[in-house]
């Protein structure tokens, strides 16, 4: 069993033209990672293959966002999400993840594919306070399912106040980068 990784507060970045790639089975166990994933996460490939993808979950990442991710993917839809990950050495790195289900010839989900790009600082300036608020709400609950549910309710309420769906909110944070427009 792997020892828990302690966050160091050191942020790691990667180049805007690099993409972190991973593929998982339907249960979220890592089946493939690219070299950028290995370099940025500071894990060796044999430490990742077969492990649950949450091996890189940072403790400051709200459970409610992952709940939304799994609900969306489970329904066969793709999702974009800002995620902070935890590297093997305790550093963290922010990504804009695009996660899609992979289907077999019968339309059954057989895994998931994730491409992750750098997250724009302007988007993170908007994401971080929202995630901090979700975490405060989640930490008021003793069980992980109750915490995720409470955070999800709070997030849904915040989005409803703005008149936005989750997808609209994500797309509103950094339209230029998400659409690939020139800077």
Automatic annotation (TrEMBL):
Domain PAS: 25-76
SUPFAM superfamilies assigned to the protein according to its UniProt record, in alphabetical order: PYP-like sensor domain (PAS domain)
Superkingdom of this protein's organism: Bacteria
Alphabetical list of Gene3D superfamilies matching this protein: PAS domain
InterPro entries noted in UniProt: PAS, PAS-like_dom_sf, PAS_fold
Pfam family, one: PAS
Name of this protein: PAS domain-containing protein
